[in-house]
TrEMBL record, chain A:
The lineage of its organism: Bacteria, Pseudomonadati, Pseudomonadota, Gammaproteobacteria, Candidatus Competibacteraceae. This is Na+/H+ antiporter subunit C. Pfam families: Oxidored_q2 (PF00420). The chain crosses the membrane at residues 6-24, 44-68, 74-96. Keywords: Cell membrane, Membrane, Transmembrane, Transmembrane helix. It is a multi-pass membrane protein. Gene3D superfamilies: 1.10.287.3510. The keyword Hydrolase does not apply. PANTHER family: ANTIPORTER SUBUNIT MNHC2-RELATED (PTHR34583:SF2). It is found in: Cell membrane.
Amino acid sequence: MQILGLYNYWIFIVLMMCGFYVVISRGNLVKKLVGLNIFQTSVFILYISMGKIAGGTAPILTGMATIYSNPVPHVLILTAIVVGIATTALGLALVVRIHEAYGTIEEDEIHAQSEDEAL
Amino acid sequence: MLLSLLVVTALAVIRLRDLFAVVMLFGIYSLLSASLFVVLDAVDVAFTEASVGAGVATVFMLGTLALTTSREKTPGAHKPLLPLLVVLVTGAALIYGTSDIPHYGDPGNPIHQHVAPRYLEDSAEEIGIPNVVSSVLASYRGYDTLGETTVVFTAAIGVLLLIGGARRRRRSEEPPRPDREEEDA
């Protein structure tokens, strides 16, 4: 238990960095959004890991269990998931509009086109 | 075990160029994280993640792919070295930061000391429903949920303005063609 005490947090960092890498290194806009979602889910895992108590059960009061995991992070993450899907939907709508306007969803091609227009 | 599967899926998302496969893997990733939430006692979060993350988000992304293109261009000018360096440095700093974090699953952690015990002890009397997550969500922190609804409403308006408005504008610019009208209907 002592050795594995931080394992969840390390995996959270690895996942978060995977998402971060996709966001900053890939030019494709849909892939960037997938990376952003991976980043976001890793934060959910961090919060839910914090709320877990060893030997506890889900925080539903049945009268049979004595240890319950912490319900507060669960509530926060429920809100975060719904807000996350809202921002993802907005981002995807922007991608569709960009594709209508420029005919591509690759970042460098969009930059090239807008530079051509500026000249 | 689940955590390792999550990492494998995330790495596959980085490697793959076919966006359809990337979106499908993202759905699998969401479902895996939902299973992880069940293991971590967060059942409400798990079914929200399974329906919203694995279901709705995947459908939205597939819809976007259908409207745009499903193939990622192979990178030419992009150099992966600088982003990799940034990611590694940030990751190392975060891992260094975890050395101060209280250990996973310990009931003496500071997070379990302050608000949560009150909810667990008093919510059954004060609100009257056994599911503590629901009573916190709908009653103690009801304003959060109201704000969340506002965000979703704003996002829905934004999406409709971005996509619905463009379609109407294009229709008024172009001369009406019978086959086009049929497609949209």
